[in-house]
Amino acid sequence: MTATAADDDLSLTFAALADPTRRAILTRLAVGEATVNQLAEPFSLTQQAVSKHIKVLERAGLISRTRAAQSRPCRLEPVRFDTAAEWIGRHRKIWEDRYDRLDEHLSVLAASQGEAASRGEAASQGEADTGEEAR
Question: Do 8 and 70 reside in the same domain of the chain?
């Protein structure tokens, strides 16, 4: 699979996951297979609206539908979730490294400012001592 195709797959995955109804459908399917009617039960949506959500999830490769007698139960397809999780993990590592470098930089800045402030106080104290001796 080319990088562009993988990026397109990720775009479809994240677009499908962006909707709370679709995420709820996926949560239900994590328990096991379900028909469209079963998936529609907890929602105040028509079966047609739920079917549209299912088509988006199918297009994204997050679920598949099988044929069992007269019904077509839906089930999760974990491979696409793994791909998204790997992408998130890679980017999480990049950002953690960047935050670690920022923390180090801020610590160095804070230490150098603390040293400068200490030198400034010592210099001020020295001037005050010199002023008292001059009297």
Answer: yes
